Amino acid sequence: MTQPTYTPSPAAGALVDPDLLAPFAQQDLSAEPRPFTPPAPSAPLAPLAAKRSFTKHALPRIILITFLVVAILPLASVGVFGFTNVVDGFTIAPVLELFGEAKAVKAVTNTVVLTLLTVVIGYALVIPTLVWMHLRAPKLLPAAETASLLPYVIPAIALVGGVNLVLRPLAPGFFVSLYSLLPFYVLMTLPFMFRTIDSGLRALDLPTLMRASESLGCGIFTTFFRVVLPNLWPAIVSGSLLVVMMSSGELVMASLLLHTTFPTLLVELGQSQVRLAAALSFITIVGSWLLMAAMVFAGSRRGTAHRATQFSI
């Protein structure tokens, strides 16, 4: 059996050079096509893959472990220094003895009261104002955001000193009271409350929520307390964390207005009883972390339950 070969037509031979068609004339057109074999990976790709694996998996773990060591080692050192002494070794007797004194109890109570009132008063002012601005005056939001940053650029010592000099002659009894710190604490924590609530409201379709609630017969207060506030709960928890940390650790304003709070007590102890001050610092930091974890856990549980309720509805 003769194999078919390519034979140029007379017309093609007249138009194309015969030397160019010669290789095709010798090609065996009846041969089976060879299967496609993908090329083997080249050797230089192996180091690149190992580098990407190290960057993706090992590097984040190394950074996390380094951060934990750097953060926990000084804290553990403070705890060991504060709860040990040469005579008794590890002991918590000085801390228990301190909290048996009325001065220490008063300082802690003042700090707790001021922190709780700062959170309540601050959000009572910020949330309704921002809800109204998002619904009725959205063009004023950039100006309000700029104004909320003023506490960042005004030093606390200048703010308290100026207000104290101007307003103390007009209301001397108010500045003697512990509650004279509340306006300053609310103003100091205003940027955190404003930004967290503003971000929460921007994530909601607030006009649609309000119209839907009104179409179901709810009044404005029912809509605010039963629709808007539950949807803002994660933002409120996040902002409350920052407000609690700032208010409970504030020192400059309380010292300038001559009020006794936990930070002023800590500074006073640090001048004469260094180990006791270190022990209190350790308790404060650990307590702050536990409080943050509890608030985050409460916020996540409530957010999960709220999403589950929405899904079931």
TrEMBL record:
It is a multi-pass membrane protein. InterPro entries: MetI-like, MetI-like_sf. It holds the Pfam family BPD_transp_1. Residues 108-295 form the ABC transmembrane type-1 domain. It is found in: Cell inner membrane; Cell membrane. The keyword Cell membrane applies. GO terms for cellular component: plasma membrane. The chain crosses the membrane at residues 62-87, 107-135, 147-167, 173-194, 232-256, 276-298. GO terms for biological process: transmembrane transport. It comes from the Bacteria. Keywords: Cell inner membrane, Cell membrane, Membrane, Transmembrane, Transmembrane helix, Transport. CDD domains: TM_PBP2 (cd06261). Belongs to the binding-protein-dependent transport system permease family. This is Spermidine/putrescine transport system permease protein. The lineage of its organism: Bacteria, Bacillati, Actinomycetota, Actinomycetes, Micrococcales.
